[in-house]
Amino acid sequence: MAEPLGAWTGPVSLGPPPAAVKGSRDNWLGRSASWGPGANLQRRGGTVTDALRPMPRQRLYEQVLDRLRQYVTEGGLRAGDRLPPERDLARRLGVSRASVKQAIVVLEVQGLVEARHGGGTYLVRDSLDVEPVEEMVERRRRLPDVLEAREALETKLAELAAERRTDDDLAALRSALDVMAREIGQGGHGVEGDRLFHAAVTAAAHSSLLAEFMRSIAPQIAESRTESLRQPARPARSLAQHRAILEAITAADPRRAATAMRRHVRTVAKVRLLDWEPGD
Length: 280
Known about the structure:
InterPro entries: GntR_C, TF_FadR/GntR_C, Tscrpt_reg_HTH_GntR, WH-like_DNA-bd_sf, WH_DNA-bd_sf. Residues 1-21 are annotated as: Disordered. The chain is mainly alpha-helical and 280 residues long. The protein is built from 10 helices and 4 strands, in the order ββαααββααααααα. The strands form 2 sheets. The chain has a two-stranded antiparallel sheet. It starts with 40 loop residues before the first strand and ends in a 12-residue tail after the last helix.
């Protein structure tokens, strides 16, 4: 078992600011330099640098995340192990329970821990490789647009696939679902099978222009796929929805295929990230 986290007396200090430069302001910064916060400072030769811009302030719960990651690594904790209760973490780290709770929520959003009502917080993986909060904020900002585009494009693709699919297209769709089912059966999220299935629907639609649109946002689609499939119980639900889409395409029922795909993409959109608030 890991050693206690130890008391935490407050935010990390970077030490006192450097002593002021003696002499003329232009002795090394160049002429007409400004000392105001965030000012662009001019170097010799006229090149502008913002190296002395104000440093970003790390939120307290981000520091808690750093400590929890260290605790899990040094303690050799594995998936299924339980973290100390929030009250205990707050006391041992010397922070408020609110800061600990914010950190736990970030871990939940990233699918790294599972908080069981009345039963504590458990690791889902063998480590806490936490995504930087600023990257989460950026993904949260762009995700609604990606999901909106997916619903518009993929609903139409499913409709066309039901009208135009060939026997080879149906075989590719079935094969993709076999891959996804196998991944989930082995404890994975089914990410590769999901990718193959949606690619097979796109191919079955036989629309080169819509396929090009899908390729143009492929990285964003992959991001939304990963975000969705790491939600609790989501892989099995997505697999069932894929099977409903395949049944409609196999039956050559465009309306049912479009409805099934729309329902699926709206399920994909139900992710904790969109409910998460970064806080201060």
